[in-house]
């Protein structure tokens, strides 16, 4: 009966569990901030559609009926004027290109936010897994303290243990209870933090701890396609287009006006054509500014690539060192402590080994398990950062 209950419990746990990649996918669908950026892309699409449209025509109603000195008698006139700005040259094509660059910037900004969200979900998820594992170890440690207290009480009757040893064990149990309660709060808060950014209520994470070294080539292969890099590239190209637009603005449009007037004696029409005169050379100044902005953005791009490479190397060094430490503890130190534990358990004589040494060594073994988890936590903290800085999101 117990086996059946355990099997049904494990089955229900697995059904409610979610992998980290599944959580990332669901979070990207539900995140409100990402939806806002998606709407910005829709706005950018509309801007592209209207970027090549002409300006609206102007309709003017005219009269000279207002008298300032003498009556105008038969010279009173009424009329209408219709004027239209007609673009010439490549101005509209350049404006369309700028609008497309704005859309691309929004797209890459969205990808950057997705990557940032994924890295944060990985960090919170693995923190939860490690804290839960630590909690299990401390619970086992708590049972050992109960055994140790019971053992001291038994030995105390035969004057083989002191009262202070019993009291110190009780103090250790109380300290451990505080640590367990604090750890439980940390786990609950980590789940709430994960729910806050993912918009998903998570009960269980179905993922295993697997610490593997990462090569330098892995973290540098996708740097040039990092969303932040692409944003700066698009901004640089946009500023170059703005410089072209300022140059095109010198003779970019012609204003055609058709006027119809009438008085008591006759009707007549006027046609006028107006072109801009770049006398004050403001376009030249704006062109220089745009080119300078493009150069400055290129400098920022090189600085970003420099920082991404170095930041990745820093996290990579930390990650690989933690993986190495974890493996050393798990494959070398812990097996030795297990061997010592078996030796202690094989002795029955109080003259050779004190019974409490058995419990003490077992607690030391659990402490090394906790040290291994601390290295795992460092590993996954670095791993989550590498996800973002190396542009290694889920595909």
Automatic annotation (TrEMBL):
Pfam families: OEP. It comes from the Bacteria. GO terms for molecular function: efflux transmembrane transporter activity. Belongs to the outer membrane factor (OMF) (TC 1.B.17) family. This is Outer membrane efflux protein, TolC family, putative CusC.
């Amino acid at each position: 009966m117990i086996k059946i209950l355990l099997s049904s419990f494990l089955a229900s746990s697995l059904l409610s569990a979610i992998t980290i990649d599944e959580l990332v996918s669901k979070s990207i669908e539900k995140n409100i901030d990402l939806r806002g950026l998606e709407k910005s892309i829709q706005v950018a699409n509309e801007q592209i559609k209207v970027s090549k449209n002409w300006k609206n025509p102007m309709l003017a109603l005219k009269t000279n009926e207002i008298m300032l000195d003498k009556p105008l008698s038969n010279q009173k006139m009424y009329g209408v004027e219709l004027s239209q700005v007609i673009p010439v040259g490549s101005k509209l094509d350049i404006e369309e290109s700028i609008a497309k660059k704005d859309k691309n910037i929004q797209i890459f900004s969205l990808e950057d936010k997705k990557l940032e969200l994924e890295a944060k979900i990985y960090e919170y998820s693995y923190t939860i897994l490690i804290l839960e594992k630590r909690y299990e170890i401390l619970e086992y440690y708590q049972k050992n303290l109960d055994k140790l207290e019971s053992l001291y009480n038994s030995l105390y009757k035969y004057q083989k243990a002191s009262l202070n040893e019993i009291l110190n064990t009780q103090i250790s149990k109380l300290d451990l209870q505080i640590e367990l309660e604090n750890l439980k709060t940390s786990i609950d808060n980590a789940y709430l933090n994960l729910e806050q950014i993912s918009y998903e209520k998570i009960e269980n994470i179905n993922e295993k701890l697997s610490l593997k070294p990462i090569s330098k080539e892995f973290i540098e292969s996708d740097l040039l396609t990092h969303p932040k890099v692409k944003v700066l590239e698009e901004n640089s190209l946009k500023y170059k287009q703005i410089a072209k637009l300022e140059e095109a603005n010198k003779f970019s449009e012609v204003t055609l006006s058709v006027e119809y007037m009438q008085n008591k004696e006759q009707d007549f029409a006027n046609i006028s054509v107006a072109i801009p005169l770049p006398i004050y050379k403001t376009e030249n100044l704006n062109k220089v500014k745009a080119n300078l902005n493009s150069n400055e953005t290129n400098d920022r791009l090189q600085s970003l690539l420099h920082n991404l490479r170095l930041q990745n190397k820093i996290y990579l060094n930390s990650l690989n060192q933690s993986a190495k430490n974890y493996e050393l503890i798990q494959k070398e130190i812990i097996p030795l402590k297990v061997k010592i534990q078996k030796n202690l358990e094989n002795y029955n004589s109080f003259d050779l080994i004190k019974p409490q040494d058995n419990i003490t060594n077992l607690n030391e073994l659990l402490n090394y398990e906790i040290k291994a988890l601390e290295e795992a936590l460092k590993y996954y903290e670095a791993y989550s950062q590498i996800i973002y800085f190396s542009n290694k999101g889920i595909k």
